[in-house]
Amino acid sequence: ILMRSDEGWKPVARFLEPPATPDGLEETAISLAEEVARKSRAVIANDLVSEGKSRNAAGSDEGSSPVLLSAWAAYPLQFREEMIGVLYLDRLASQGSFPEEVGDLLAVFSGQAGLALQNSRLYQDLQGSRRKIETMNHTLSQTRKQLEDQVATKMLQVEEVRGLLSRQQSELEGRTRYGGLSGGSKAMQELYALLD
């Protein structure tokens, strides 16, 4: 299965039968993925040996014998009209071509695989959104706690100031401004009251 990335088509899942698929076949798969993406439909070549078009995919080791493909197929993995990926299969010359019923089976499978991949992407998006919301909730909770602590501290300070003001007011009410001055006559008392 190949998926498109920023760097181009990349294999994301491989199902290899022994012996492992040799180097060189990945380039074949990528070029077919690009063709499927351009055409938005399956690309199938089923009897390459008899048509003289067998694809040579040499192993990476020097002196290794070339590997000939007898058939390949690339099916689009789509969800609605969006190309999600490409399902690529090949058969070595020793395996012969694909049986006739494989085409219908792969068409159905690629449709189901496209749906499964889209569901997986949606699930990953949902999980990412959930994690983002959890992070935001945690941040909000911490901010709320900090604000509650700040408000509590300010309320304590306000209560301290109120207590101080109340004590000062009590002290002032207990004082008479002119108690130490001479002149206790009624007229002087009225003057003191007027000044207060």
Radius of gyration: 43 Å
Residues in β-strands, percent: 15-25%
Could you tell me the mean pLDDT?
Answer: 79
The chain-level structural class is alpha+beta
Q: Please summarize the sheet with the most strands.
A: 6 strands, antiparallel
Query: What is the distance, rounded to the nearest whole angstrom, between the alpha carbons of the first and last residues?
Result: 96 Å
Order of helices and strands: EEHEEEEHH
DSSP helix fraction: 40-55%
User: Spans of 5+ residues with little confidence (pLDDT < 50)?
Assistant: 54-65
Shape: rod-shaped
Number of beta strands: 6
* Continuous helix count: 3
Please supply descriptive tags for the structure shown above.
196 residues; alpha+beta; 3 helices; rod-shaped
